[in-house]
Amino acid sequence: MDQDDYCRTVRAIKDRVYSYAVYLLGDREDAKDIAQEALVRLWEHRETIPETNSARAWTLRTTHNLAIDRMRGRHSRRSIDDDVLAYAPDPGPGPEAQMLVREAGSTIVRALGQLSEADRAVLILRESQGLRYEEIANILDIPLGTLKVRLHRARQRLREALLAMGVQR
Amino acid sequence: MSAPRSECLGFRELIDARLDAPLGLADAQSLEAHLGVCRECAHYRDEVRELRAALVALPTLEFPEHELAVVWTRTVASDARMGRPRARRAQNLRYFAACAAAALLTVVALTIVVTHDGDVSDDELARAENELRLVMGHADRALSLAERAALGMAVGRGVRDPVEKTRIATTRDVLVGIVSPSFERTGADAPAPRPRRGPKPRSDRSRRRRRS
After folding, report:
1. d(Cα B40, Cα B32) in Å, to the nearest integer?
2. How would you class B57 by CB atoms within 10 Å of its CB: exposed for 0-12, middle for 13-18, buried for 19 or more?
3. Would you call B50 and A169 a contact, using CB atoms and an 8 Å cutoff?
4. A92-101 long-range CB contacts below 8 Å, 24 or more apart?
5. How many CB atoms lie within 10 A of CB B211?
6. Taking CB atoms and an 8 Å limit, are B51 and A133 in contact across chains?
7. Which of B19, B76, B14 shows the shortest CA–CA distance to B50?
8. pLDDT in tens, B50-99
9. What b/e readout covers B160-179, taking b as 16+ CB neighbours within 10 angstroms?
10. What distance in Å separates the CA atoms of residue B57 and residue A128, rounded to the nearest whole number?
11. CA distance B33 to A125
12. Chain-chain contact of A128 with B61 (C-beta, under 8 angstroms)
């Protein structure tokens, strides 16, 4: 990957990488550091990464590992900040629709904060990032079968967390 | 929330699996039949669908521009500033070699001037002047090379933008024109060609000494 490829790749994946870090860590400041570090490491390893798709998976895996290290370094478990969606892009027309989407998003983000890092990671990568099973298994470095089981359990736990927060259909 | 019945557990796994990929015909038919009679599982299906829709709707957050600027500074810009080590070494070598050549040629030129005494013929004077102009021309050229190497080392490396490249090239040409005007000289102004090598002409004084 040469310099132009690197610049193009960073522009294509930077928001995904940052979003993944935000939803995983629940803290925008930490997420900025982690995303920045992951993108710098992509530059340092650019000669061993051939194309954009593998660069995306590589950077997300690096982001994941850095985020896990950061969470382990924390002395106590931190709850997810309510304002992680404060600077989210405008979701659509109409202030009422915007408020509803933001509220639903905040509720989901808070429920995600109740889960373990492993559950949160699979849900974000699968549902929010829309990655394929193979890519997720590669990023998290787990077998495909384990991933499917983990995803099923994570969905169950998220549903239970939402019910425990009093969210009903 | 009540715990699912044991016969529902398998169907709930199928409901989850159907979120990611279509089921086989037999599984799909048995699930549909179960959903038709089990209200809890039908409710569960609607819940997981909504949950998934909510997760999918989570916005992709924009990585702030000032953070991206830091990334460029730490990666592309830093590489352009520092250059590749090997190229930098080669450029340093060229710079020092050119500087050394310029210094040596200047010393040679000064020696020619200092060692000539005042008692010389017109021929000798013209020849010495030619030698001096030639040596100073080489020194000038060496200094110009050193200047180009230094300029390239300072600003030229890693610049990819064609507009920026043109600007640097123009600046460099202007500087080269200022620093070494004789480098640009052509025709009548150019230094005279190097005289043919031969035995060094004797001075009048040595001739007089031989006669006496």
Report:
1. 13
2. middle
3. yes
4. A101/B57
5. 6
6. no
7. B19
8. 888 888 888 889 999 999 999 998 888 776 655 555 555 555 666 667 66
9. eeeeeeeebeeebeeebeee
10. 7
11. 32
12. no
Does A109 contact B at CB distance below 8 Å? Answer: yes
Nearest Cα neighbor of B39 from B62, B11, B18 is B11
pLDDT of residue B81: 57
Query: Considering only residues 54 to 73 of chain A, which have any Cβ-Cβ distance to chain B shorter than 8 Å?
Result: none
Residue in B closest to A92 by C-alpha: B59
Which residue from A130, A158, A143, A151 is spatially nearest to A56, judged by alpha carbons? A130
pLDDT for the residue numbered B185: 46
A159 in Cβ contact with A114 (< 8 Å): no
Residues 6+ apart with CB under 8 A from A68: A117
Question: Is the CB of B68 less than 8 angstroms away from the CB of A10?
Answer: yes
List phi, psi (to 5°) of B58. Answer: -60, 130
- Smallest CA-to-CA distance from B193 within B128, B127, B134 is with B134
| Residue of A15, A39, A40 lying closest to B61 (CB–CB) | A15
Residue with tokens 């450029």: B91
**Can you say whether residue B24 is alpha, beta or left, with left for phi > 0 and alpha for psi between -120 and 50 degrees?**
beta
Nearest CB to A127; choose among B13, B43, B55 = B55
Contact yes or no for A169 and B43 at CB 8 A: yes
pLDDT of residue B209: 57
